[in-house]
Amino acid sequence: MLVDSHAHLDDKAFGADLPAVLARAREAGVTRIVTIGTSLDSSRRAREIAEREPDVWFSPGIHPHEADAPGPVDDLRELARHPRAVAVGETGLDYFKKYASHPNQKALFLKHLEIAREAGKPVSIHCRDAHADAAAILREHAPLRGVIHCFSGDAAAAEAYLALGFYLSIAGPVTYPNAKGLREAVRTVPLDRLMVETDCPLLTPQKHRGSRNEPAYVRYTAAEIANVKGVPLSELEAATTANARALFGLP
């Protein structure tokens, strides 16, 4: 069994064949999927999928790329209270793409943390080239529960998030030949703090790189992590599934 802890099933890349995508995920042993909102419209689409599919849950959020013009952010409050909502986000900081100003990203991030605390939900956090600032904000507003999705930092960044009680979710890049640093960081993370994800339709694992990513492919990421950590795949699957269930309150 595996949980894809971060997917974007509402993406237009799945517009023509989502039922087949979900069928392949189930055949591959992916028993639960959390689909993530990146805007208010995306979050509402994610909710609709979660209402329709018994093994899909959702997390409403507005991506930091949208922080300069996020829309009515308070609309997330109602979405976060939905019974199929298991987290708040995708939220966080992205200093790599430079699509939104740093002050606006931080303000939007803080709003998500407030909404998550009110709803009693964990946060699903995006962080790229901003680990020091993200960890500082989380430290200032501790205690919080959540996961750093598609973790891309080094061992020091991993240690900072782990000290705050956060989980680290690993995506397809861990399978890439040039990801030595990420694999070294993953080696330091205890099994009881790891999750796996696809971030589909992006970040396809090496075996299918160049094609659309989908939840069934999370098994390739899991296999690479098990290899890196020197544990049986079954042990890695059991641990990451238990972690996702514990954080998100999944059955």
Question: What is this structure, in a nutshell?
Answer:
The chain has 9 helices and 8 strands. It has 251 residues and is an alpha/beta fold. A 5-stranded parallel beta sheet has the order 4-5-6-7-8.
Set down the secondary structure blueprint:
Elements: E1 2-7, H1 18-27, E2 30-36, H2 40-52, E3 56-59, H3 76-80, E4 88-94, H4 102-119, E5 123-128, H5 131-140, E6 146-148, H6 155-163, E7 167-170, H7 180-188, E8 194-196, H8 218-229, H9 233-248
Overview of this structure, please?
With 251 residues, the chain is of the alpha/beta class. The chain has a single domain (2-248), classed as Metal-dependent hydrolases (TIM Barrel, Alpha-Beta Barrel), CATH 3.20.20.140. It is 41% helix and 16% strand. The chain contains nine helices and eight strands. The chain has helices spanning 18-27, 40-52, 76-80, 102-119, 131-140, 155-163, 180-188, 218-229, 233-248, and strands at 2-7, 30-36, 56-59, 88-94, 123-128, 146-148, 167-170, 194-196. Strand 4, helix 4 and strand 5 (123-128) form a beta-alpha-beta unit. Helix 8 (218-229) packs across helix 9 (233-248). It is globular, with a radius of gyration of 16 Å. The protein starts with a strand and ends with a helix. The mean pLDDT is 98.
